Amino acid sequence: MSNKRIEHLERIKEAIGKAELSEEEKSNAWKHIEEWYAEDKAFGTLYEKLAEISPKIEALMEELGLI
Question: Cα separation of 57 and 42, whole Å?
């Protein structure tokens, strides 16, 4: 995952922590953020593995709007 995305996720986490939400609402929000982070990280790993197979995959993923 890019540093930019990590920074955005951290800002969102901070904002949730400061928001006037119940602890349960904050907890649920953090769980979702962590799921998104894991999914995004997994996608990055998948992309890296596919890119090792062929440089054409990067072009294909760009064409599909995935990167």
Answer: 17
**In terms of C-beta density within 10 A (0-12 exposed, 13-18 middle, 19 or more buried), how is residue 1 classed?**
middle
Q: Write b or e for each residue in 15-40: b if 16 or more Cβ atoms lie within 10 A of its Cβ, otherwise e.
A: ebeeeeeeeeeeeebeeeeeeebeee
**% of the chain beyond a pLDDT of 70:** 94
Q: What does pLDDT average to over the chain?
A: 80
Estimate to the nearest angstrom the gap between the alpha carbon of 63 and the chain centroid.
Answer: 20
- The residue-averaged pLDDT of 32-40 equals 82
What is the reported pTM? 0.56
> Distance (Å, rounded) from C-alpha 26 to C-alpha 32?
10
